[in-house]
Please model this.
Amino acid sequence: MIKNYFKTAWRSLLRNKSYTAINVAGLSVGIAACLLIFLVIRFETSFDDFHKKKDHIYRVVTVLKTPQGAGYVAGVPMPTAAELRVDYPKLLAASILKTDDILTVSENGPKGVKKFGEDGVYFVEPQFFKVFDYDWMAGDKNTALNEPNTVVLTQNEAEKYFDNWRDAVGKTIKYENDNNLKVTGILKNMPANTDMDLRVVISYSTLPYTRFKNAFNDAGGIITSHYCFVVLPDNITVSDFNNNLAAFAKKYKPASRASDRLILQPLNEIHYDSRFGVFSGKTFSKELISALGLIGLFLLIIACVNFINIATAQAVNRSKEVGIRKVLGSNRKQLVFQFITETFIVTLFAVGLAICLSSVALPLLNQLLEIKLSQAFLADRIVVVFLTGLVLGVTFLSGFYPAIVLSAFNPITALKSKIAANNPRGISLRRGLVVLQFCLAQVFVIGTLVIICQMDFFKNYSLGFDKDAVINVPIPGDSVSHSRLNALQNQLLQQPGVKDISLSFSSPSDDYYTDNFFKYNNSVKKTDFLTRFEWADADYFKLYNLKFIAGRPYEKSEAIRGYVVNEALLKKLGIRDPNEAIGKNIIIWDDKTKLAPIVGVVKDFNVSSLREEIPPVLMASWKDSYQTINIKLQAGNSNVKQTLASIEKFWNGAFPNDVYQYQFLDDKIANFYKSEDQLSVLYKTFAGIAIFISCLGLYGLVSFMAAQRTKEVGIRKTLGASAAHIVYLFSKEFTLLILIAFAISAPLGWYFMNKWLQTFTYKITLGPEIFVLAIAASVVIAWMTVGYKAIRAALANPVNSLRSE
Model:
């Protein structure tokens, strides 16, 4: 019997090839999108879940108390883990520090010195490998990093430095051109689903011999890239240990940091919490995971609705088949099973095609989101279970209603060809499904338009400084390298195509900065707000065209001789007249060598992304802090490549042991909005898929209307109706449905996108033009979809339409 169901279903599908093709196309696209979204969600929810103690591992994080509210920092003072082990001996604690800048690794081999720029260098305590589980290819995890000046490499890094990882153990590499490190172990390459992409792992006890020596025993200073992890025993709860951390902080932190709180953050929450961040810099919020899940569900619903519409549109064509089956003895249960079997076969084909489409789209998705989803996703048992559930769910959702409708036909009426559009409830349901389809599709369209407008706003918004044709080149931070900076500046200024040169800690808009408190106008107390310190030479103002509203730039000097502040800082101090601040003294860190007057006030400029308000900024010239060369290229330079080559040549001459890298400032600023760019592309894709499937559903409805109203059209034409009038009859029907859908989708789109825009301090206003464009696009696309079918019905010969009457 089952075999007969499948055989009959197969023959029926072959007999209606166009109907089958449209259904398979709609379902396969919807299922492919749903599958890809599932793979992304599965990947993002699996971060660092391969560690055996994952349910007991926590990160100790810092919550700062500021006048603006709570401030969240993932870092803790460097001695934290050691102090925790002393005060809580049953607790397993370990530190890890990731370097924030490009570091140099060199190896003296038979081919000479090889230089590598690395940004995946970590310092870890030996206990770290007792907390986390990584696979070792060589070396002992218990002793490999016990001694200073030892290093563990991953397989890829070892092969990069020594060609063969088996030859790496026992060899020496050099860190920051200063510390010789002995390779004591090899790790397997890190999995893709981890926020700690270990590559070069140096022993924590090496820190006192590096530029971090001053912070090694500092119980008050917080380094944002320094994490502390603990493993809680079963008999200690998170709330209990958070209470212990309050007493711990009070014991070790200096009075100036007494308001800082230490709390625990579960390992399984780290990847989703953007407040504290992660080493990779890529958190993935749970809200975004939920949103993607809903989008996948909506696309699947749209695909199922499309199937239902097209299947019921074919009901009239199959009415005689149903009548004959019933006359020959088939009962309704058997007919339902027959039609469900047809849906099952279509769904199987759709899933197979969806798997192929997903495999083709997966590399593009990986490139867009900068993730590493495996092409062998069918090897994952969870994915197979998901696809099985998808087949069963889609079969039921898509096939049940059409099966009930088709099996309910009266055999006498069906054989007399009397089946017509006389069931208002069925027609209303089909129209309602089309409204649902276009409602969801228009929400996607509105979201896409809002994101595009916001991204365009980012690109055209004035940041308060000139960012065009500026490159930032990192420079070594040691004193020997700094002694060569003046000569390098002079050489670069003489190169064709170079307009201005400036030295600074970082660029005007950068995620890499320092902030602290200061004393104003000989006050005994420090300010109650954090201020961002921008260290830059006097040429910085000219290069970036910063506008002064009072005073002047500070004079050229290697040490602090004067300060320049921004408008936001004056507002915090309660000063309305910028000229009032000129001449007032500022001192930072209670260091008398950092005591100097305010000499100028600049207009506010954006020092970070447009999500955030402009903070108070304090600027001064301090050569010891410089880590960046800012190079302004000549406007209209026709030979940028030659200019960049000259810059690299002279930079390498000044710093032969370091690795040259550069970045255009506008590219750096664009990186602030990378996630929005990715979201924009995803929304465009999802909107396109939703519209495509919805148009197939609309085509199905028009096909149904054309089949049901064939004789009506023939009569109208016989009585003198024009083809344009007939097209209008069809157009009026679906245009009304789209307008109803828009009336529902517009407030939904406004609510969700307005909520998204609230995450930005600087944003567009949701005006009516976005919604007008959305409805206009939907109507035009729908007209194009049904135009062929409507025109064909309008041009049909009325004699053929009325012949069977």
